[in-house]
Amino acid sequence: MYVLYTENSSAFFKKIFYAYKKGEVKMAEPLIHTKIIGRVMVITLSRSPAMNALSQELISQLNHSLRQAEADSEIGAMVITGDEKAFAAGADIKEMKDLTFQKVFAEDFIETWEYLSKCRKPTIAAVSGYALGGGCELAMMCDIILAADTAQFGQPEITLGTIPGAGGTQRLTHLLGKVKAMELCLTGRLMDAQEAERCGLVARVVPEKKLMDEALSMAKKIADFSLPAVQMIKEAICAAENMPLTQGIRFERHLFQASFALEDRKEGMNAFLEKRKPSFKNK
Ligand code: CAA
What we know:
The protein has 283 residues and is an alpha/beta fold. It has 3 domains: 28 residues, no CATH class; 193 residues, 2-enoyl-CoA Hydratase, Chain A, domain 1 (Alpha-Beta Complex); 47 residues, Lyase 2-enoyl-coa Hydratase, Chain  A, domain 2 (Orthogonal Bundle), CATH 1.10.12. Helices cover 45% and strands 16% of the residues. The model has no long low-confidence stretch (mean pLDDT 94). The structure holds acetoacetyl-coenzyme A (CAA).
């Protein structure tokens, strides 16, 4: 039996301490680190020697932290980042090398990655260095991608004799259009941060040294707004990817009308008229 340990799971750690002493459990190596700054959880992929290759264990630890963030009413946004060299260089090729069709099909391999795209709180990918294959796909599952000027994006799976498996062909086509998605996926070419910004993959490019400051200040700004209003916006924009326009507009109107049930909506409008800063209670 393996047990996950992250910085934020000390209560859990205490509970299993005695079992560990008896040798009944083993500690899994921490492949991600989390830090809470105000209302923001920063999740850092920490597998530098392997360019943050996304092993199943790493994804499981990532999901564990995301679940904690989702459940914690004190968290209003998450930033996901890697290190200077790599956000993530894709799924772990060493781990995949000997897998068979029977196994990956039976276990629905890669399905667990989708948890990030199902989070209801906003997520920001702060990308420095390589975001390739599954790394690019993981970034695209976030709501906003902020890129350092050193960032490189690509779907090089074709060079390995396979194809993107965590949404690359789909999300790139939605974000960049068919022609650019075809070019990137069929050639495996990497694109730099400036090109990624021009074609709408990233929200903004910033100098590498300022990446985390910018990501944190963006996340803090979002996390300080009314969480239910933020979540309604996220839900409406995500729905736009799957709904025809007239249906999407109707969906948005219903969410807008629902926001009139929020105390925060009342507070925000009163604060504007009283020329003061609103004090949102996330209700
Ligand atoms: N999986 C496992 N290990 C990886 C890896 C990956 N995706 N990417 C890098 N590594 C490992 C390397 O094997 C190497 O390990 P060793 O030191 O043990 O040899 C270490 O990370 C450093 O890598 P390099 O020596 O290759 O570093 P580099 O600076 O020369 O090149 C790179 C960096 C361009 C990112 C290069 O490592 C590379 O091309 N990586 C593979 C990228 C890729 O093809 N990604 C797609 C994976 S498939 C996928 O993601 C499917 C999907 O859709 C889910």
